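Reviewer 2 asked us to include a model.

Predict the structure of this chain.
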Amino acid sequence: MKIYENLTIKDSIGKIQHFSFYETDGENSIPLIFVHAFPLSKEMYLDQVRFLDENSVCSYFLDLPGFGNLSSLAVLPTPFTMEHYAAYIVSFMDFMKIPKAIIGGVSMGGYITLSFAQNYPKRLSGLVLVDTRAEPDSEEARKNRETTARKVETEGIQTIISGLVPKLVNEHSLVRHSHLKERIIHMIQQASPQGIANALRGMALRPDYRPHLPKIEVPTFIAVGENDELTPPSMSEDMHKLIPNSVLEIIPEVGHLSNLEKPKLFNELLYSFVKDLIK
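Predicted model (structure tokens):
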């Protein structure tokens, strides 16, 4: 495993880009690229990084602007839409000279993955959608995101942590993994208030991806926690029905962060899906 922190490059149109990521080495010509859930960081994938590294699978796990080791970047107070994040992945692929990849993400990372599939289908070899949904926000949800964004901007990140953590993970997972709560809080605290606010406003603007789902031609892995309250299994079942070449796995006794709550089972399911795609 290699760790790259805050690499600064100039992209093909002259824009300065910053990248922070984990890389695992492998012989596969088509790598995996993962983006993280809100409001976490690439550290949420450490169990997958180690597993893929041990199995010699080439993969990349990115921090998004405003999160993780990119939280110190000066970000403007403007919505960072899922399309912005998808374009950021393309910039990373161009920098790394990756023509096509299997793109995946959890929660907000799944929204970004769906945007990538809609806007850059020729750069795609497969999809991994975990604890996410294709539906847009309701009007009430949009208002709640704006309220939270303003609260973080004025009062700081600490004000949202106590209410957010129970929504992200199943209580049984916190018992099984004694350090999981601290690990999640640490990742949230790494983020910048403006990065969180920008992502909240960007998620509120995301479109309805459902009309595009039948047009997805690449193999797609969908996984969801049995007890996911934020994006319940019914939403994943709906995506599975609409995406032609998709598989669905419902992971028992976990909530909204399946890969963190049952990493061994998640890794086995993920590897079973990608092993034939990456040959």
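The chain has a mean pLDDT of 94. The domain at 2-274 is CATH 3.40.50.1820 (Rossmann fold). We have added this to the supplementary material.
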